[in-house]
Structure formats: structure tokens, C-alpha cells
Amino acid sequence: MTARQKLLEATRSGNLATKNRFGVAPMTRVTATEDGRATETMTRYYERFARGGFGLVVTEGIYTDQAHSQGYVFQPGITDEAQARSWQPLVKGIQSHGSLAIAQIMHAGGISQGNRFRDTTVAPSAILPKGQQMAFYYGKDGYAMPTEITEAQIAEVIKGFADSAARAVEIAGFDGIEIHGANGYLLDQFLTNYTNTRTDQYGGSTENRIRLAVEVVKAARARVGSGVPVGIRISQAKVNDYHHKWANGEADAAIIFGALAEAGVDFIHVTEFEAWQPAFGEGTPTLVHLAKTYAPNALIIANGSLHDTEKAEAVIADGADIVTIGRGALANPDLPIRLAEASELREFDPAILGPIADIKDSELAL
Ligand SMILES: Cc1cc2nc3c(=O)[nH]c(=O)nc-3n(C[C@H](O)[C@H](O)[C@H](O)COP(=O)(O)O)c2cc1C
């Protein structure tokens, strides 16, 4: 079988089975109602990826509680019955084409820039986040100074993830859960040495800094049971620090992926700017390869500039089971069909995301 045929073949690992190896990467589009319900526009937007042949669709990051988790205005949530129900038509739309619907659940922590429940932010430590708020999500200027989250609040965060996972499966009907452990949001703030200077069990060593992610995975698993896929997204780079690398390189990768494997994840979704590049500089393995090495029983989902099919084939050969496409899917919601038919792919046009990153009518017509 050629690598291209392999991309279009069904795959199965544990309790996760997809009709091909193409997924849509999670993308925040700030198109929910102000009170966090999924809208009809979102339903139409997500359905067309499934119609276009993607075997798996991961939603944008969905906030998990009515305290500090919300990151953006018009971000969807799954914190109560009304929000959870609003996802039902969207999930059905994806599933009606034989695709899996995965809910990405997230807590924005110190880089929250829009939250209708709180006007303060929390983070592992009271350290000013790097960078600027994102203008295309209605942000401006720098981030607020967060307060150090207490152990009691950490317990609430874990409960928020677990309850949201349960609502996503039981009420909304999602096929699986992706915990957002990447890109600079709360769980990644715990993992990152310079945003976490705690001296308790959640700070210090890499084992301690990955502990909250492990506890969230276990709590979500306990609520949804062993039959529902539960995974986590992991990255080095952050929305407010593109070039961050884990200080101890492969030794950190071994601890991080090993701990998540031990926690019982079904999949690990790794993202790098270019997924095929060495993780820690020339001559080192890719993050995909390291995830596969240290979490051999987890399905590995790879993301990062993989609309280039030759690169997608290379990361499959390197150990990934599924690839997810972000910008390339915005330009080509029917990318898997185009590949099967050997048609040309459209170039991604960044204008889709400006001035605000909300879903445009022009996209729905693609
Ligand atoms: C508009 C936009 C919104 C995004 N929102 C999220 C998000 O909610 N959660 C997440 O984990 N990643 C998010 N990402 C990152 C993408 O999932 C993906 O990692 C990134 O686009 C790189 O993949 P690509 O090269 O295929 O575009 C977002 C990316 C874009 C372009």
C-alpha cells in the first residue's frame, strides 16, 4: 500500500476507529452566542468538513466551567444543560457523514482575554503572560496579571473538565474528548517552567508540572468510562510564545508522554509548527516519534502544516496514526475527497480570519 492510500484507509486503535486518517484540527472561531451556546452557523461550518470526507472533526476549544475557564468572548462552553444541548445538531451533522465528533475542552488560565463570569484570571503562578491578546478574538493590549490558583480552585478546575466531558458525551452526543493540554492555556501553563514557579506538588520537576494534566485525564476517564476515547493535545509552542522548547528535551518528552500513557489516554494529539521537523534541533526525533515511543499504546494524532500531503505521508511513516489539518481545511473543507480524486488543493487565504476570526458566509459556500 502506498503512503497516500494509507492516509485514505480506515484505522482503528483501541476504542477509536475512523474511516480515514484525516482529521480537522481544533480552531476557535468565536461564533457562539454571547452566553456560550453553539449556533446554526457553527453547525453548518462543522458539517461541511464531514461532508468533505474528514474522518474525524475536533471542535474548537470549549470552556469547562463558570469560573475562570472562558478565554474569549463568543467562545462556546459546555458548562450547563443549555450549552450542552446546543451542540446536539452540530454533533449529529458530523456523525451523519460517518465521521467522529471530538469535543476539545479547555481552560484558558492566565491568557484568558474575555470571560463573562469573572474579570480576573488565574494561573499556576502570578507571572505576567508573555505577548499580546489576540485582536482577531476581540483582544487588545497585554494580558492581565493572573492570581496564583489555590489547591481548592485546582480541584474545581479538575471537576470542571470531568463534568464537561460527561456532558459532552451524555448530552451533546460527542464520540470522544480531547483535553487541551497545549498552546499556552492553563494545563500547558502548569507544564511550562517559566509560567509555573509553584513549590507544591504541581510545581518544580517535570513530573510535578505534568501532574495536573494527568489528574484531569484520570478524572475525565472516570466520568465517561473506558468505552469513550479520551485524549490530550500537547505542544511546545504557545499562542503567546511560538518558539518555546522543553528545557530537558527528550528526557522531558519521556516523562510527559510516559505520564499521560500511564494515566490511560487513548490518544495524544501533538502539534508543532511543522510536524516533521526535529523536536529539539538538528538530529533529534520529531515530537510525533517521541509520543509514539513513550506512549506506544496511544493513538498518535499529528498536526502542523500537514496540508502538504507528502509531509502528511512522512509523519504517518514516522509513527502518527492520524493527521489533523487546520488552515488547509479552512481552504479545503473537502480535502480528503480532493486527494482521493487527485484534484488540486486551494491555498489558504488568511483574510478568512480577519479582522475577526468568526465564521464567514464565504466559507460556508466553499
Ligand atoms: C483560527 C485558528 C484557531 C485555532 N484555535 C485552536 C483551538 O481552539 N484549539 C487548539 O488546540 N488549537 C487551535 N488552533 C491551532 C490549530 O489547531 C493548528 O494547530 C494550527 O492551525 C496548525 O495547523 P495547520 O498548520 O494545519 O494550520 C487554531 C488555529 C487557527 C488557525
UniProtKB/TrEMBL annotation:
Flavoprotein as UniProt keyword: yes
Q: What is this protein called?
A: 2,4-dienoyl-CoA reductase
Keyword set includes Flavoprotein = yes
Q: Which InterPro entries match?
A: Aldolase_TIM (IPR013785), NADH_flavin_oxidoreductase (IPR051799), OxRdtase_FMN_N (IPR001155)
Membrane-traversing stretches: none
Residues in domain NADH:flavin oxidoreductase/NADH oxidase N-terminal?
14-342
Note the Gene3D superfamilies from the entry: Aldolase class I (3.20.20.70)
UniProt keywords (A-Z) are: Flavoprotein, Oxidoreductase
- One Pfam family this sequence matches: Oxidored_FMN
Identify the domain of life.
Answer: Bacteria
What molecular function terms (GO) are annotated for this protein?
A: FMN binding; oxidoreductase activity
